[in-house]
Amino acid sequence: MAVPAFLNTGFKFQELFMVADVQTILDAWVAMVTTADNPAIGWKKWYTHADFPGLIESGEYCSPSAANPVMIKPTRVSATQLSWRVRGTNLVTICTRSIVIPSTNTVTARVFAGDCHSAIDVLTWSAAAEFLLAGSLDPLPDTASSEINLVYGMGSRSGTTRDSSDYWDACWMQDGDDASPVYTTRACQFKGQSGTVRAKRTPSGSIVYRPRELFAKTRGATGTYGNYHWAGRCFQILLAPSILPSGSRVRVPIDTGVLGEFILMAGPNNASNYYIALRCA
Question: What is the pTM (predicted TM-score) of this model?
Answer without folding.
Answer: 0.94
